Amino acid sequence: MSQVEELLKVVEEAKADKGNVVIVTGKPGSGKSKLLREAAESQKWAYVDCRMLISEEFVKIPAADRGLYAPDLMCDILSGYNSDVIILDRLQTLFVPVFHINTDSLMRKLSKKFTIVTAWPGYMENGNLCYDKFDGTEAIRISPDGFKIMNVD
Description:
By secondary structure, the chain is of the alpha/beta class. Helices cover 37% and strands 24% of the residues. It contains five helices and eight strands, in the order H-E-H-E-H-H-E-H-E-E-E-E-E. The protein has helices spanning 3-17, 32-43, 56-60, 63-79, 103-110, and strands spanning 21-25, 46-49, 85-89, 115-119, 123-125, 128-132, 138-142, 147-151. Strands 2-3-4-1-8 form a five-stranded parallel sheet, sandwiched between helices. The chain has a three-stranded antiparallel sheet with strand order 5-6-7, with no helix packed on it. Helix 5 links the parallel strand 3 (85-89) and strand 4 (115-119).
């Protein structure tokens, strides 16, 4: 079974669960983004670079309120793609501290309307999805509970 076929199977499982998130993990250069692009193209799913979610409207929201309003604003943007499966690439764009976005919460809220498929830009450790700042300090730790994980070698 090809990796695209494997991903399609995992996405179908997530869709059946309704309100799920599929996270593709793997080392840098393992082909996570390529896999997402191929799946999106073969299935006509919306492929969204997360940089597109940082709209002018988002930036106008006071920083302290962004975490509260980001899910609704981003849901509106994603609704314009007319796809029940949304591929979110470059997820680390949303990790920028000044955006004040809780990515875990955001993905869970978006998954109530869409099946979300994304590449995790970090690694798995002690059962958590981890992403560290470039200086090696801890940045993000997310429990994968409720998410479907697919590893790319």
